[in-house]
Amino acid sequence: MNRMNLEQYKGVFIYAQQVDNKIDAIALELLGKANDLAADLGTDVTAVLIGSDVKGLVDELAEYGADKVIVVDDPELKEYRTEPYTHALASVINEYKPDILLVGATAIGRDLGPRVSARVATGLTADCTVLEIGEFKARGDKEPRQGQLLMTRPAFGGNTIATIACPNHRPQMATVRPGVMQKKEPVAGAKAEVIEYNPGFTPNDKYVEILDIVKSVTETVDIQAAKILVSGGRGVGSAENFALLDDLAEALGGTVSCSRAVVDNGWKPKDLQVGQTGKTVRPNVYFAIGISGAIQHVAGMEESDIIIAINKDPDAPIFDVADYGIVGDALKIVPKLTEAIKAQ
Ligand code: FAD
Fold first, then answer.
1. Neighbours of 6 (CB within 10 A)
2. Which of 289, 292, 298 to mutate to test the pocket of ligand 1 (most atoms within 8 A of CB)?
3. What dihedral angle (degrees, nearest 10) is formed by the CA atoms of 259, 261, 262, 267?
4. How many helices (H) and strands (E) would you count in the chain?
5. Binding site annotation covers 146?
6. Mean per-residue pLDDT of the chain
7. Ligand 1 pocket check for 127: Cβ under 6 Å
8. Looking at the DSSP assignment, which residues form a beta bridge with residue 12?
9. Which residues are involved in binding FAD (predicted)?
10. Does 273 count as an annotated binding residue?
């Protein structure tokens, strides 16, 4: 077996996802984490920006912590398509040899990350919630290796936490769920070294051809940006009863979200689901109303600053993570709460 020369792989890279020539929030979150990792390793942070006419986005990446930006700009890359984007990112890896590459666990990143890792013959840890630099003793090692990326993710339906390393291949690749890592405070006017790179895109019959793009007409609410979330579970009882939560959210200037049971019942769209297979949120205040507190739900909201639970079962596990708890019927308590807030 050919052993990789690991020494030649340097630096922490992130895939700077953009859609419609706007940087996605996940890219800025990855830059925040990449800066911490790079500081521990004594190296720098490179953002890989792929698209068409995207050079105008470089400064934003610099302000959020990119020391260098590799720009792959080509008309072939106007919309995300698996094949040309895989070719672009895999070529960047082969050319610039990053030690670490972070990709967002978005719909795009979940498609792109595994294909790129297979193309460059390395491993990928999906859906990480914690990333840190540490030591790792691989099979056959006498001493632990320093400076390894330790990638932690929930496993077995959230029932255990697994920490994974990639000792023998590079780059060490991870996808990271949106909303988990913290952005850095932007530094206005910060500049990055810009490297333009184009591996060449020959028109290829095998590329998917996009004939038309039809944007979703539903009004999507970004629950990950909300400072106050009023989240409802199966205990709310029906789609109609969610009107009570809408009223509370309106009185507080917040947004409604929900558990998976609510989505499964067809009461709310999947966009609003919090949890392991939904979104990870960190609002200032999270109301959990008629939500039992299953581990898969808690995984998506436990980092909230203040958690307020309303549940008729005093033994509901949600009270284990709540800062404040109200035991009782949510359908009676929520309207009273809304009234009291409006009266203030
Ligand atoms: P329930 O567990 O049915 O709880 C309802 C709660 O409401 C109960 O505690 C009850 O006491 C209370 N209640 C009932 N009536 C009232 C009332 N009138 N007033 C006050 N309280 C009342 N779940 C998620 O939420 N997000 C995920 O991303 C997610 N991912 C999953 C991934 C996997 C692989 C698996 C296996 C499961 C996942 N789940 C997820 C499902 C999760 O295990 C739970 O089934 C789900 O969270 C339960 O939703 P719930 O709390 O709304 O409903």
1. 14
2. 292
3. 160
4. 9, 17
5. no
6. 93
7. no
8. 45, 100
9. 234, 259-260, 273-277, 290-297, 311
10. yes
pLDDT band at 214 (very low <50, low <70, confident <90, very high): confident
Number of neighbours of residue 262 by Cβ within 10 angstroms: 26
Residue 283 Cβ contacting ligand 1 at under 6 Å: no
pLDDT of residue 248: 97
Instruction: List the beta bridge partners of residue 136.
Output: 145
* Ligand 1 contacts CB of residue 296 (under 6 A): yes
pLDDT in tens, 32-85: 999 999 999 999 999 999 999 999 999 999 999 999 999 999 999 999 999 999
163 CA to centre of ligand 1 in angstroms: 27
Domains of the chain with CATH codes? 6-194 (3.40.50.620), 226-342 (3.40.50.1220)
Detail the DSSP E strand segments found in 171-216. Answer: 172-176, 193-196
Residue 121 alpha carbon to ligand 1 centre in Å: 40
Q: Whose CA is nearest to atom 33 of ligand 1?
A: 157
| Neighbouring residues of 344: CB distance < 8 A, sequence distance ≥ 6 | none
| Residue 258 phi, psi dihedral angles, 5° rounding | -160, 175
Measure the CA–CA gap between 316 and 290, rounded to whole angstroms.
Answer: 10
- Token digits for 149? 């990326």
- To the question of whether residue 104 is assigned a binding role by annotation, the answer is no
Encoding tokens for residue 206? 């095998």
User: 21-40 b/e with 16+ CB inside 10 Å = b?
Assistant: eebbbbbbbbbbbbbbbbee
The mean pLDDT of 207-226, rounded to a whole number, is: 79
User: In this structure, which residue's CA is closest to atom 27 in ligand 1?
Assistant: 275
Counting beta carbons within 10 angstroms of the beta carbon of residue 120, is it exposed (0 to 12), middle (13 to 18) or buried (19 or more)?
buried
CB atoms within 10 A of CB 190: 15
